From TrEMBL:
One of its GO terms (biological process) is methylation. This is Ribosomal RNA small subunit methyltransferase B. Pfam families: Methyltr_RsmB-F, NusB, RsmF-B_ferredox. It is found in: Cytoplasm. Residues 164-423 form the SAM-dependent MTase RsmB/NOP-type domain. GO terms for molecular function: methyltransferase activity. It catalyses: cytidine(967) in 16S rRNA + S-adenosyl-L-methionine = 5-methylcytidine(967) in 16S rRNA + S-adenosyl-L-homocysteine + H(+). Its EC number is 2.1.1.176.
Length: 423
């Protein structure tokens, strides 16, 4: 049953669900896992992620090769052409195999009469590929970002925007967090080397290790036993800044999928941690992570804007608020973000962040610490949000300086953190 499908048509339909229905790949792809064979999962991910990563370039090429775009019920064929072009440009799949499978995708999509069209456009693309790519290199589409986002990044980072855009367009590095309850980072680097896996330590974050070549988690020493977790280096910085201590009452708000919850418990195994998230489904990931790492936390479903509903009048020694945001710092991990976000979302998200900050602040004890973090690189969600909060709350002060990480090929994702102390 499982092998009776056409992977290119599944990729085209999935891309359509992202672009036309606003669904995210992180929801769509896991739902397809039991419909395709294990060996095809990685290829499906590559086709979907890759096509969305370079979408404007593929759109531009189709415009050059077709008099009018395919719309309406034929729109999925437009995405099928993109999947075909992506394979020819960016994968090692032999051209004849990529073409044959993509053309057969038209049949799987119940459009057998359009096989000839798909074949014709892709063969034409093959013949003109070099010339088209040279022309595309001088076109605005070369930045591979929607214009509104490009404009915001250019305004916020006039000197660095090009470097940010380039980092966003690359495949992400694979970072691990070494579980200090099992091994020191140096010991784990030694275990990786013994397993033939090359890795380097992060210069600043004490548990972070980057693999020079990403690999399957099953190949990592002791992964099933909780010796390491896949987590970006910048995400690990939140817990270093929070500095949790044994015996403290700690709230991890907007906790799913649980990477930071478990990191808190690795750093302070005797802390009393409450992990809260609004998304019931994603909370199951928090529970899975806690189980794998043999950690215990109180896991609750709740809205950050109404804390009294899930914690009453309780106050915490430390709060980690990894706030809902535009996720513009993690585009290389989730290229669909570029096409799911709208310019108008930024002000809405900033409003939501302010509401959560104001609602949760009374639940921090006097002398307590709150770390505000986002995986965004936009000032409206970060430094401007923080300044407005400090103006509204005279009992809050910034400890040290706020920090904005930018995505870098050999470093972590784009991330903002600030440590606040309640006076």
């Amino acid at each position: 049953m499982k092998n009776n499908y056409n992977l290119r048509s599944i990729a085209a339909q999935t891309i359509g669900q992202v672009l036309d229905q606003g669904q995210s790949l992180s929801t769509l792809l896991p739902a397809l896992n039991n419909k395709i064979s294990d060996k095809d999962r990685a290829l499906l991910q590559e086709l979907c992620f890759g096509t969305l990563r370079v979408l404007p370039q593929l759109e531009w090429c189709i415009q050059q090769l077709m008099a009018k775009p395919m719309v309406g019920k034929q729109r999925t064929l437009h995405y099928l052409l993109m999947v075909g072009m992506y394979q020819l440009l960016y994968t090692r799949i032999p051209a004849h195999a990529a073409l044959a499978e993509t053309v057969n995708g038209a049949v799987a999509l119940k459009r057998p009469q359009l096989k000839g069209l798909v074949n014709g456009v892709l063969r034409q693309f093959q013949r003109q590929q070099e010339a088209l790519m040279q022309r595309a290199a001088n076109h605005d589409s070369r930045y591979l970002h929607p214009s509104w986002l490009l404009k915001r990044v250019q305004q916020a980072y006039p000197a660095q925007w090009q470097q940010i855009v380039d980092a966003n367009n690359q495949k992400p590095p694979m970072w691990l967090r070494v579980n200090r309850r099992h091994h020191s980072r140096d010991d784990y680097l030694h275990l990786l080397a013994q397993a033939g896996i090359e890795a380097v330590a992060h210069a600043e974050y004490p548990d972070a290790v980057r693999l020079l070549t990403p690999c399957a988690v099953n190949n990592l020493p002791g992964f099933a036993d909780g010796w390491a977790t896949v987590q970006d280096a910048s995400a690990q910085g939140c817990v270093d800044l929070l500095d949790p201590q044994d015996g403290e009452q700690i709230l991890d708000l907007c906790a799913a999928p649980g990477g930071k919850t478990t990191h808190i418990l690795e750093a302070a195994p005797q802390a009393h941690v409450m992990a809260v998230d609004i998304d019931e489904q994603r909370l199951s990931r928090v529970k899975e992570n806690l189980q794998r790492l043999h950690c215990h936390a109180e896991v609750k479903q709740g809205d950050g804007r109404t804390p009294q509903q899930w914690c009453g009048d309780k106050q915490f020694d430390r709060i980690l608020l990894d706030a809902p945001c535009s996720a513009t710092g993690v585009i290389r991990r989730h290229p669909d973000i570029k096409w799911l976000r709208r310019d108008s979302d930024i002000a809405e998200l900033a409003g939501l962040q302010a509401e959560i900050l104001d609602a949760i602040w009374p639940h921090l004890k006097a002398g307590g610490v709150m770390v505000y973090a986002t995986c965004s690189i936009l000032p409206q969600e970060n430094s401007q949000q923080l300044q407005a909060f400090l103006q509204r709350h005279s009992d809050a002060r910034l400890a040290g300086t706020e920090r904005q990480n930018l995505p870098h090929p050999e470093d972590g994702d784009g991330f903002f953190y600030a440590k606040l102390i309640k006076m």
